[in-house]
Design a protein that fits this description.
Layout (H helix, E strand, L loop, with lengths): L5 E4 L3 E4 L3 H8 L1 H4 L21 H21 L6 H12 L22 H15 L5 H8 L5 H7 L5 H14 L8 H7 E4 L2 E5 L3 H19 L2 H20 L7 H7 L5 H6 L1 H7 L4 H11 L5 H11 L5 E5 L9 H11 L11 E7 L10 E3 L5 E3 H4 L3 H5 L4 E8 L8
Parallel strand pairs: 4-7
Antiparallel strand pairs: 1-2, 3-4, 5-9, 6-9, 7-8
Helix pairs in contact: 3-4, 3-8, 3-9, 4-6, 4-7, 5-6, 8-10, 11-16
């Protein structure tokens, strides 16, 4: 069987699958599950084109990693075939641990583990199934390989993951402000003493990259309507947990809803890990369509509102909301929905979102100056934008049902 296939990608054209091992990993059911997990969770409620999946992103990231390593080799960086292959596998599998709807349900189904940690657990299981052929890929992914730049290509302030998702998310949402010159950035990457650096002439491309990421965060990733619909989804899951048994659930979803799955259980119990790897967006959506008929008022209302796009109102503020200042809102919700006070937490939701386009503290983007000096790009740059983007911006939110006026 010919396993050296090509895939037509809307961003890059034809992507090659370089060898049989990568072909078999892509064909594995745990990886194929990524076809059924949307890259941007609930963002299509705001940008209808945002229906691309984690599968698209993983393949695109592998393609860019291939481009990056080819360019580094041209610059004289010694990369063995084993390292080359391992880096491709590490980036291919970097998001395999995402829960349904990606970040929207992170930490809701498995408490105490983020998607990177779950990815590491799944990679260990795949390594067992592929007889140790993922050993080096796992080291690179975990940052345990002595040649640091490989991990930086997978996960850093300027990694292949971000180069793909910014352009891909920009393309599918239609938000052109997110478009970056990924090809140019890749060509300007270099390695000095096993540290990933950017050639000095790439400083404006990096400024554009950081600006695009900041704009995409506020305009797409934490758009206030997206925040509202994600909070509705989270409250639906939390409400189902409180109700307990008696609701329609797929076997996989039932396991994660009606049990507290700990990190050690996911790691040690192959049955639980397999169940996680068969759970996707469709389990949740199918259940929500069923739960709309629940006798529980809060659950049925939340599900109906989500399906009919009667989404939460969302108010953003620079300062923290004081629950006491909105006592009238709580009273209205209690009256309209005819529910007890203890259930109000599902319909009036408070929280905070934060973002910083560029974080220092050991995660700097380093620039290689023409004289050979290596400096933090924020220090080297005469561009005030890069310095300003180090500031962490917080926005507090208040969500409540659409049919209730805040000021009545």
């Amino acid at each position: 069987m010919n396993k050296k296939k090509i895939i037509n990608d809307p961003l890059y054209g034809f992507i090659s699958i370089p060898n049989e091992l990568i072909y078999d990993i892509i064909n594995h059911p745990y990886f194929q599950r990524l076809r059924r997990i949307k890259q941007l969770g609930m963002t299509d409620f705001v940008y209808p084109g945002a229906l691309h999946t984690r599968f698209h992103h993983a393949l695109g990231s592998m393609h860019l990693m291939n481009e990056a390593m080819s360019n580094l080799r041209i610059k004289g960086v010694d990369i063995s075939e084993e390292e080359y292959n391992a880096a491709l596998i590490a980036i291919l599998l970097h998001d395999i641990g995402h829960s349904p709807f990606s970040h929207a349900l992170e930490n809701e189904l498995v408490s105490g583990l983020n998607h990177e940690q779950i990815s590491a657990i799944i990679m260990e299981e795949l390594n067992r199934q592929f007889n140790g052929q993922l050993d080096l890929a796992i080291k690179i992914f975990a940052g345990l390989y002595e040649r640091k730049f490989f991990h930086q290509l997978v996960s850093s302030q300027l990694d292949i993951d971000r180069l793909d998702y910014l352009n891909r998310d920009s393309f599918f949402t239609g938000v052109i402000e997110g478009k970056i010159g990924a090809d140019r950035i890749i060509k300007l990457l270099n390695v000095v003493k096993d540290e990933l650096v950017v050639d000095e002439k790439g400083i404006y491309s990096i400024e554009n990259f950081l600006s695009a990421r900041r704009l995409m965060y506020w305009q797409v990733y934490i758009h206030k309507t997206t925040v509202g619909v994600e909070k509705m989804l989270i409250q639906i899951i939390r409400r189902v947990r409180k109700i307990g048994d008696g609701l329609h659930l797929s076997p996989e979803l039932n396991l994660f809803i009606n049990n507290t799955i700990t990190p050690s259980m996911l790691k040690d119990d192959k049955g639980i890990l397999k169940a996680f790897c068969y759970m996707d967006d469709y389990d949740i959506l199918g259940a929500i369509k069923s739960w709309r008929h629940s006798s529980d008022t809060v659950l049925s209302q939340l599900c109906s509102m989500l399906l009919e796009r009667k989404l939460f109102n969302v108010m953003l503020s620079e300062s923290k909301f004081n629950k006491e200042d909105y006592s009238d809102l709580y009273k209205q919700v209690k009256k309209v929905f005819k529910i007890e006070e203890k259930h109000l937490e599902h319909l009036v939701v408070l929280g905070v979102k934060s973002n910083s386009a560029y974080i220092g503290d050991g995660q700097q983007i380093y620039m290689l100056k023409k004289n050979g000096e290596i400096v933090d790009i924020a220090i080297a740059s005469d561009l005030p934008n890069i310095k300003a983007m180090r500031k962490i911006v917080k926005k507090y939110y208040l969500c409540w049902p659409k049919n209730i006026s805040l000021h009545s």
